[in-house]
Structure formats: C-alpha cells, structure tokens
Amino acid sequence: NAGVTQTPKFQVLKTGQSMTLQCAQDMNHEYMSWYRQDPGMGLRLIHYSVGAGITDQGEVPNGYNVSRSTTEDFPLRLLSAAPSQTSVYFCASSGTGQGAGQPQHFGDGTRLSIL
Amino acid sequence: AQTVTQSQPEMSVQEAETVTLSCTYDTSENNYYLFWYKQPPSRQMILVIRQEAYKQQNATENRFSVNFQKAAKSFSLKISDSQLGDTAMYFCAFLGGLSGGGADGLTFGKGTHLIIQP
Predict the structure, then answer these.
(1) Residues of chain A found within 8 Å of residue B43, distances taken between Cβ atoms
(2) Are the beta carbons of A56 and A65 closer than 8 angstroms?
(3) Of A14, A21, A22, nearest to A82 (Cα)?
(4) What residues of chain A score a pLDDT lower than 50?
(5) B32 CB contacts (<8 Å, ≥6 apart)?
(6) Which residues in chain A touch residue B98, judged by CB atoms under 8 angstroms apart?
(7) What's the rounded Cα separation, in Å, for the pair A109 and B26?
(8) DSSP label of A39
C-alpha cells in the first residue's frame, strides 16, 4: 500500500517563484489536509478538504492555494514564494470523516527552502 | 481555539527505563480525541496512541500507555521499557469540532524531544 505520497521530497526555490507540492492518497479517504512544520513548533494546518470540490482554510492559509478535483489528489500551490514559507510540509488524509476521530495518515513530508 | 502545551522540550533517559511525557490542553468542548504522534529523524509522523474523550479507560498500545485526566485536561504518555528506537520527537495532538465533522484538523503541541541513552 502506497498510503499518502508527497512529491517532491526536497525543493529549493527563489523568492517570487511559484511551485506546486503534490499529494496523492490511494485509500479513498474523504478528508485531506496540508500542514507546515517549523523549527520548535508542532504542525500547523494550512488548508483542508472534506471531499472533491470542497476546500477550506486552516490556521495559516496566507500565501497558499489548494484545489480538490479528485478524491485522490490534493495539491498545494505557492504562487509567489517568500522566505517565510521555508518549512517542512506534510500532507495527511483520513477516512470515514473526521467526525469519527480516525487517525490521520501522513505523507513523508517535503522540505522546502526559499532563498 | 484549542491549545496544546507540552512543557518538556527535551528529555533523556536510560534504555529500559520508564519515561512519562506530559501534555495539557485547553478546550471548552466535551467530545474530542487526543493523539500522540512520534516523529523519528526520518521525519515520518507515526501514530503512537489515540484516546477518545468520552472513554474513561486509558488507552494502551504495547509499551505505550496514557494517563488521561479529562477534568484536569491532561494527557500524558508513558513509555515502559524504553528502547533506543524510541528516540524521536513526540507530539501531542487534539482533534475537536466533532459536532461539525471535525474538519478543523489537528492542533499540535510543540513537541518533546526524547532521547534514549544506551
């Protein structure tokens, strides 16, 4: 089972560049989300989706866009990268709806550096 | 908004000892879930244990157990017979908003770096 797959694993960008972090899951999970992890801090929620065509903002959404055209994919877009977006990004998914308190499955993370 | 506090930035114990990591949280909700995640140097987020707030019985998973004190809003993790492979960051996390489907995601503490010494 692949679980949650994130690509790329590492990326270096220059300020002002754009890029998309890819996330795919093969567990038919309805709920998907993106977190960022900064040094000395836990993970913070950026955006989430409760199903195809439905997205919403989390705690730190500024500078990021998301879309959910299929159940499997949930890409995160940086339109104009800033040094403050240097972080490790995690995608996560869970099944049967968050209301059941199902544990989230995490991808392996993407380390992103903005110069 | 909920907050999760882990007051021990780093802990170090000898192999085979028992260690307890502390976590407190603040919420006005009555129904929620609590989790402990382990993050080894490989960066993976690995679920250690889950506790449902409406269950009084403390969750256990092999060498890992929790002491859940709902009234005190405390959720500590006990690791028995610690092993070198337990060396990792440990994060406490809260999931609430269940009446709305719980879609707000997890709220994490800042983590405790646990080092198991040989």
Answers:
(1) 88, 108-109, 111
(2) no
(3) A14
(4) none
(5) A101, B53, B94, B95, B96, B98
(6) 98-99, 101
(7) 28
(8) T
Q: How many Å apart are CA B52 and CA B99, to the nearest integer? A: 14
| B75-117 tens-digit pLDDT | 999 999 999 999 999 999 998 876 666 677 889 999 999 999 9
**Beta-carbon contacts of residue B100 (< 8 Å; ≥ 6 apart):** none
Per residue in B67-84, pLDDT (tens digit) is 999 999 999 999 999 999
Helices (H), B1-118: none
Q: Given an 8 Å threshold on Cβ–Cβ distance, is A35 in contact with B91?
A: no
Interface check for A26 against chain B (CB to CB < 8 A): the answer is no
B8 residue type, one letter:
Q
Token pair recorded at residue B29: 């909700």
d(CA A48, CA B116): 35
Report which of B79, B91, B27 is spatially closest to residue A92, judged by C-alpha positions.
Answer: B91
